[in-house]
Amino acid sequence: MQNIELLAPAGSYEALVAAVQNGANAIYLGGNEFSARAFATNFNREELQAAVAYGHLRNVKIYVTVNTLYEDNQFEKLQDYLLFLQTIKVDALIIQDIGLMSFVKQYFPDFEIHMSTQTSIYNLSAVKYFEDAGVDRVVLARENTLDEIADICQNTILDIEVFVHGALCMSYSGQCLMSSMIAKRSGNKGACGQPCRLAYKLQKDSMNLDKIPSYLLSPKDLCTFENIGQLIDAGVTSFKIEGRMKRPEYVATIVKQYREAIDAYLKNTTVNAFEQRIKKMKQMFNRGFTGGYILKDQNFVAKDYPGNRGIEVGTVIDYDKHRKIVKIQLQDKLKQGDRINFKSVGFTRTITKLYLFNNLINQGNAGDIVEIELNTPVKKNETVYKVIDIDLINEALASYKNENIKNTVTMAFSGQINEPARLTINYKDLKVEKVSNLLIESAAKLPLDPQRIRQQLGKLGNTVFKANDITIDFPDNGFFSIKEINEMRRQAIDELSNMIVKVKKVKKPMIKTKHNHINKQIKGIVVKIYNLAQLKALLTEE
Which of 88, 137, 504, 517 is least enclosed, having the fewest CB within 10 Å? Predict the structure, then answer.
């Protein structure tokens, strides 16, 4: 079966847990330093170490973004940060700057390097450049089409990572200077002010073509859920979900849908409840879905509204100004705890009280005319949108509340009368042995049943392990403490866990710095001009 990686975002530790428990194979996240999502919660160093440990215990890789642009005076701090990431065994670095790529290759060669989408890799020639440079993966630009991606995949040995879901950027692969010009915040240093989400007026010859501003630059959200098979067949090896600024419930829901769609295609089956899955993703967050550049979808811009529009839940049929009550004809269920939005007034509120025929109800269904207390007047016939579904939120929370991942271990328990017992646990290439503090005794009455030993060793419910095979070699007339068996199991599992997440001891590399100071000479006077008349005036000067 083809090995496809589902790569999920984590802007917080809870989002990391949500992604892992819902089927992500790898997580990308940022620390508090050098990350292109400065306004995500992000991870301090202690949290980064905990994140790597959590992922590795569950066979999930952790990729850390160091994908901003750097200045010379930041490099000493950056070196220290890279050393820390190497110590905690981060699986890969996501890098934009080719200077940093070269630096990491020379001084931190154990790191896997993934070239960020902000490196603007659009074509096979660029991919070949990075293949020759010795990187491990490229994240293709979001402007590449499926045909271009397939051609690249078929002609490179590198892993190819592609964005499959989430927010799009109006600029080429995030190379936007508008934030710096308008918001005085650099998007290329992780502080994008999202100018594409603002309202603009379109002008021609200084005349407004629009009566009112609209969101001319605000892209819809990418959704390739229907086209998973085409992406797999094209040769994409990593499916990347955008969303380090999103809440954990969003991450849980989106990851689960793509996980099950990928698995279904690889098993040559059809994912069930297709429309319901699309609806769930829309209810979590959407600006309208598009196939984007990748699927040549020209329906790309969400001109009418730049934020989360949820799903249409009903229509306003009346507003009573005296009672401050709005009547809504429902086309979908609406429940206490849901949040609804009225676009015309830019107003969002949580449903606390919901009435049907003047009776307080918990839920209204399609076809019902319900009443909601609302102080803000709204227009008749206005569409009402549900932007948060409380049932879906609770479903998402439940999906990662408990441990869903179990790694298979084998166990062997043995011993003889008047000798200590020995427990051996094997996991992959790791082996743990524990010898008991007590001796196996001859049974005065009933001997210890080997099945009881097997039962106690298999009690791994609160860990990330499960026993696939338990071998017992125990004397027929032997007796041994159940409490000691439990303690041996606990100690062995703890030691195995520590072996998996143990930090590396690494030496700080001897970094050679070379500065060539060039004495610059002013060769003349530079004059800035704004029109042809000024240029002619300058040229006539002697």
Answer: 517
Whole-angstrom distance, CA of residue 247 vs CA of residue 43: 15
Amino acid at 58: R
Q: Shortest CA distance to 61 belongs to which of 119, 127, 10?
A: 10
Which residues are CB-neighbours of 307 under 8 A, at least 6 positions away?
197, 287
Which of 489, 397, 477 is CA-nearest to residue 436? 489
C-alpha to C-alpha distance for 70 and 60, rounded to whole angstroms? 29
Q: How many residues appear in the chain?
A: 542
Single-letter code of the amino acid located at 315:
T
Q: Please indicate whether residue 356 or residue 512 has the higher confidence score (pLDDT).
A: 356
Of 108, 113, 65, 78, give the one whose Cα is nearest residue 92: 113
Please enumerate, as own/partner, the contacts of 269-276 that have beta carbons within 8 Å and a separation of 24 or more. 274/226
Residue of 310, 375, 304 lying closest to 341 (CA atoms): 310
Closest CA to 84 of 54, 44, 116: 44
Strands 112-115 and 92-95: parallel
Task: Give, in order, the Cα–Cα distances in Å from 534 to each of 527, 538, 542.
Answer: 10, 6, 15
How many Å apart are CA 90 and CA 249, to the nearest integer? 25
Contacting residues for 479 by C-beta, under 8 A, at least 6 apart: 440, 441, 442, 443, 444, 447, 448
> Rounded to the nearest 5°, which phi and psi values hold at 77?
-65, -40
What's the pLDDT tens digit per position in 482-511? 999 999 999 999 999 999 999 888 888 877
Report d(CA 503, CA 528) in Å as an integer.
57
What is the rounded distance in angstroms from the CA atom of residue 136 to the CA atom of residue 81? 21
Question: Residue 105: how many CA atoms within 13 Å on its side-chain side?
Answer: 17
Cα dihedral angle (16, 22, 25, 31), rounded to 10 degrees?
A: -10
Strand partners, 424: 412, 433
pLDDT of 265-299, one tens digit each? 999 999 999 999 999 999 999 999 999 999 999 99
Long-range contacts of range 517-525, CB-CB < 8 Å, 24 or more positions apart?
Answer: none
**pLDDT for 30:** 92
Task: Look over the chain and give the mean of its residue pLDDT values, rounded to a whole number.
Answer: 92
Place of tokens 């025929």: 357
Cβ–Cβ < 8 Å for 454, 472: yes
Beta strands in 104-158 (DSSP E): 112-115, 137-139
The pLDDT of residue 70 = 82
DSSP H or E stretch at residue 29:
strand 26-30
Apex CA 431: angle with CA 426 and CA 435, to 5°?
Answer: 100
* Widest pairwise Cα distance in the chain: 118
Are 334 and 353 a contacting pair, CB within 8 Å?
A: no
Closest CA to 367 of 327, 329, 338: 329
Residue 37 has pLDDT above 60, yes or no: no
